[in-house]
Amino acid sequence: MKILLIEDDVHVAQVLAEAFGADGHATTVRYTGEDGLAYLSRERPDAVVLDVRLPDIDGITVLRQIRSTDAALPVIIMTGLATPGEIAEARRLGVTEIIEKPDILRHFGEALARIASRDRLQDAT
């Protein structure tokens, strides 16, 4: 899969990109919401992994902007600090998955498998 990772912590982004790469995923990293949205204006990855806490615009705002142009793009929110209101808003906006940051590496493969399975079902219809 082609993944866009939007994560402001350089160390976390590096660890995640390496882990995703080890699983065979091509990962592009952007460190701000604005950079992530700029990338999405030119490219369409297979999935977006999005941090809720970003330095410029928050992840929920990024998700809202993604949904305004692409309702079908799978978006996985990763967070350790999201409020219940942010989680509810992400669900209302149609987030594909919400994964707690400490568990991202453990649960990411499962989340991508669900996305790939949905894609295969849509392609078959």
Write up this protein.
With 125 residues, the protein is of the alpha/beta class. Helices cover 51% and strands 19% of the residues. It contains 5 helices and 5 strands, in the order βαβαβαβαβα. It has a 5-stranded parallel sheet, with helices on both faces. Helix 1 links the parallel strand 1 and strand 2 (26-30).
Task: Compose a concise summary of this entry.
The protein has 125 residues and is of the alpha/beta class.
Tell me the fraction of residues in β-strands, as a range: 15-25%
Helix content: 40-55%
Instruction: Give the helices and strands as they follow along the chain.
Output: EHEHEHEHEH
Number of strands: 5
What form results from the Cα inertia axes?
A: globular
Radius of gyration from the CA trace? 13 Å
Compute the separation of the termini in Å. 21 Å
Low-confidence parts, pLDDT < 50 over ≥5 residues? Answer: none
Structural class: alpha/beta
Number of distinct helices: 5
Arrangement of strands in the largest sheet? 2-1-3-4-5
Largest beta-sheet characterization = 5 strands, parallel
Provide the residue-averaged pLDDT: 88
